[in-house]
Structures are given as structure tokens and as C-alpha cells.
Amino acid sequence: MTTAQKLGTGLLLAGLLLSASARAQMQSSRDLAELGMDLYQRANSPEALARMRKDLVNAPEAYLERVELPGTLVLLDKRRVRVPAMKYNVALRLLEVRDSTGSHVWPPGSLDGFYLGKGSDMRHFRSKLVRNGSTKLDFVEVLTQSDNSPLVLAVQHIYRHLDAQLDPILRTETKAESTEIGQTVLAGTDLVPKEPLRAISLNRKSVSELFGSRAPEITAWASNQGLSYTDLGQVLRMVEYYNQLSFKKP
């Protein structure tokens, strides 16, 4: 049974076991699951897969990791399904999964998220709205430890094509065209439904604004710890400290 079939079967069995009132409460969850299934089915249609094969799908630079890694899918109902091999195609914003049933692709919104790799090297991704010029749904790498956090810190991986550079006088090529995967740092909250994550700059002003009324407290703590506002790992420590305080008291 494929992952998609497991999702549909699980929802059917749950519906048979729930009372009428409980089924009403689950309506929004089913609607979300149906939306996710629709996204999955459209992404795996023969036409969509044919287009995908023409669009850098086999270019190693299009992938966050160039080799397949084991991982875990997090379905929209939060159930987890382990898979033996997956790769995240940053260029096409698709998670490519290979299991005993074949190969499948999962677009943002068809999953709650996924874990890439295992053990201490495991990376956590979620489907999140991102506002950076426009608002789009994308897989973002979440750095904060807990889901449903007051403040989320994440990274959006972006595939970029860089044009060749020419000497302005000789018009000879000084640097060949290339591609790269860049990163945009994002912040937001899990506590407000459908609130998008927004791009932030790593500097004292932008980071301090994330903490609202607690900014003086976090700033004093960060100063005492000798933390830098330009280092992503140290900003993550500030965000996690802010979340700890927010969970403890209003």
C-alpha cells in the first residue's frame, strides 16, 4: 500500500469509529487531507511528471543533498511514515521519494512536512506560507525544536541561476554561468493559523524586533551570553530562550 493509500484508508477507518459530533469536529481535518491528496495526485499525474523530467530533475545542483537519504514523511494528520530514500529538489520545490511501490513526488501542502536523514544529521522541513515579496507555500527547514512555537526560526532554500560575467571592455567571459542553492532566513509564529513566515536580516535591529515587549530581556540575556546577531546558530539560541520564557509565563 502506498503512502497516499495509507492516508486515505486511515481517514476512512477513523470516520467509521467516530460519533456524529466527533465527525463534525474532524471535518476541517478531512478537508485539509483532501486538499493535500489533490496536490499529491496532481503532482504525480503523467503530464506533471513528464514536465518535471524536463526541468533539471536530474541535475545534481538542483538538490539540497546530492544523494538519496532515508527519511520520514509527516502526513497532514501528523502521522509519520518512514521511507528508505528521498531527495529534496530545491529547483522544483518537490520532495522526491522512492519506496517499495516506486517513485513519487510531494509538493508543499501535500505533507505537513518531512525529516531528511536520520540521527544527529536529521533535518526537519515543514510546509509553511512564506512572505518575501509575494506569499507562497513552500517547504522550509525549521530550526526551532518544537512545533507550535511562539516564535519559529527557519531557512528557505532557493535555487539560483547566475549568469556568466563578461569583461566590460573585451567582452570576454571572466566567470562562467553557474547555479547555486542560497538561503533566506525566516521568522514567524506557529500560534496564528496561516500566518506566513517572513524574511529577516541577521542584525541586531531585525532580530530584536522579533521579541516584541521581551526584547530588552532577551537583549540583556544575549549580551550576558556573548551572542552575535549576525550568526544564525547564536540567533537560534536567542529564539529558543524567548520560546522558553513564553511557555513559562504570559
What does this protein look like?
- The protein has 250 residues and is of the alpha+beta class.
- The chain contains 7 helices and 12 strands.
- The strands form 2 sheets. A 5-stranded mixed beta barrel has the order 6-7-8-11-12. A two-stranded antiparallel sheet has the order 9-10.
- Strand 1 and strand 2 (80-89) form a beta hairpin.
- Helix 1 packs antiparallel against helix 3.
- The longest helix is centred in the first third of the chain and has 17 residues, at 27-43.
- The model is unreliable at 1-26 (pLDDT under 50).
**Main sheet strand line-up:** 6-7-8-11-12
- Gross morphology: globular
Determine the strand fraction and express it as a percent band.
Answer: 25-35%
What is the overall number of helices? Answer: 7
Report the order of strands and helices.
Answer: HHHHEEEEEEEEEEEEHHH
Distance between the termini: 46 Å
**Residue ranges: pLDDT <50 for 5 or more in a row?**
1-26
